[in-house]
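Suppose you are handed a protein chain with no further information: no name, no annotation, nothing but its sequence. What can you learn? This example shows the usual starting point.
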Amino acid sequence: MALDELKTGDEQIQVDNFTFLVEDALHENYGKFTVDYSNDWLRRGFTIIPDRGGASC
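A reasonable first move is to predict its three-dimensional structure. Written in structure tokens, the prediction is:
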């Protein structure tokens, strides 16, 4: 995750007051993502979780 500017081929996704840019190649390879934020004493910050579309073993 990084601050970036919109480039040709990027997908722009608006959620509330946030705009996310996703490179087409990442979107094609991984599909949907969940962006989670935690302010817990054990874990603080953003986590990006790709939706793999199924259960894992």
